[in-house]
Structures are given as structure tokens and as C-alpha cells.
């Protein structure tokens, strides 16, 4: 039986985490701190290359942070013994974007689930048959699916299998990394409803990585906005309707590009549409080269280019914003004569 947490307390968090890839360890995540409450769903949003998936892999333990700590129930997971770390990592499971590439095409679904139940090979013939059937039923698949191979299923069914595999470890936290982005719209809705149902029944905590703000608004209780590996805003999902940071406002006002780019930017109002290298972000505020307000709305432009803003509480709405000149709830557009406060 899966452990059900009481809501409210922080189950998983990162403090001052910087992380990257490669031998030279060029960080693409910079001084990021998040705190995920039990039973909540924290959304992480931002353009492609903002560091969303890197944060997911740091939280699940696939990438060790260059700086900072990851805590499970307040304990630094990297200070645990090898055995304790293995047990801790089973409590945090990743559901990746592409279910097919994460499944061994030569391995039956039943075998994949059995290995997730007993990852160190302690398997006996038939020992996990009931548990495998239970896991498949929990994601609305028949027990006969255990005998089949991944290519015999649709994309939505494969995503259900990957979710079942994550549940096999009896986790407390599931990190969902763009889990619906490769699915048709109708199938997306089915997967989202499945995740919500599992959360209600099992008391799961979610970290939901997505570029789709409509999905974030629907699924999430809290939101963290990443730009070039830097947290620029945090709060409830109300930050999407009342953003405090110009980048959050840009995301809200943007729409999907039919040619497949991550964002189609609104006409006018941006100082620059070029996104910098996450491993070599601009000085000062990382967003200042693209900010629609900085050049025209105030005379302290040098401060934006030279001084990194601190993520701080912004009234009157419950949010934390990393901006020297945060937007007010009645902010004006650039062509309306400046910005509101």
C-alpha cells in the first residue's frame, strides 16, 4: 500500500541549486530554490532551454548539483548513505516526455513493471503478478497488457504504462516532464485526468514541467517561472493572471507558434527577441535584453543590466518576483504610455 502524506509540510525542496552538463560543468541552472508541499502540484514553466528539465533531473537525482542541496523531508539527500539514497530516490519518480524512448522495446510491459517493483533483481516467477495487474488497473489498462511489447500500444497507452512503472516504486513525489506534449489533445485530457485521479486516491505530490500555460493553470496549485536557468517568479497559479515579472507577462501574452517554435512573441514591445545561452546568461537581470519595459519606462536601465534582482515578496498578491521594477496588477502595455505600478 502506498504511503499517503499529510498535506502542508514541505516534502521536497532545492536550496540554491546550480547544475549543468558536461565535463566542464557549464551550469544551465543558477541558484534555484523551490519548496514543494505535500499533496500539492508545483508547475515549472518557461521557454525551451529555460532549465525546466534540468531542474527535474536534479530533483529526481539523475544530476548532482554543482552547488546547493536537494532535501527530502528536510534531509540533504547527498549526505545519505548509498542504501538510504537509493531508498530516497525511489520516493521521487520521473515520468518523461517520450514514453516510447523510456521503455525497452524488447521487454514486455510485465517485465518492465516487475523490474520497477524489485529493481535489484529479486524476482520470482509469478511473485509480482497481482501487483502488476493492480498497477495496470490503476492506469486503466487490462492485465493482459503485461504480456505485450511497447510497440503494440498507442502513445497514450504507453504513457499510462510509464506512469504505472513510476507507481511501482510507491513514490511520494512524481515529477512529470512534459508528459502530454507528444500526445493528441483528446489523449492529453485523458492523461491529465488520470494524474489528478491518482493524486486524489494516493495522496501524491507532483512537480509538473510544462510549456503549456493552460495545462499549468488547470493542473497546478503553485508555479515557478524559469528563464535562462534563473527563477524569475514564484507563487500560486494566480501569477499567470497577475504577473509581477515582465517575462511571466510575456509568457501569458504569447501563443503557440504553428511552425513549432516554443513561443510566438506578441507584436512589438520587446527590446530583443534573441534568447541568450543559458550557460552564459546576460549580466544583471537575465531578462533585461528582452524586457519590454526597461528602455522606456524608467531611467535606471543601468541597474537592470548591472545588478541581479533578488527574488522577493511583492504585494498585494502572494508572489515572489525577481525584478527591480515589478509589474503591478494594472500594468499598462508599452504602447499605452508606460507601465503601471
UniProtKB/TrEMBL annotation:
CDD domains: ABC_NikE_OppD_transporters. Residues 12-253 form the ABC transporter domain. InterPro entries: AAA+_ATPase, ABC_transp_ATP-bind, ABC_transporter-like_ATP-bd, ABC_transporter-like_CS, Oligopep_ABC_C, P-loop_NTPase. One of its GO terms (molecular function) is ATP hydrolysis activity. Residues 242-266 are annotated as: Disordered. It comes from the Bacteria. The keyword DNA-binding does not apply. One of its GO terms (biological process) is peptide transport. The keyword Transport applies. Residues 250-260 have a biased composition (Basic and acidic residues). Keywords: ATP-binding, Nucleotide-binding, Transport. Belongs to the ABC transporter superfamily. NCBIfam families: oligo_HPY. This is Peptide/nickel transport system ATP-binding protein.
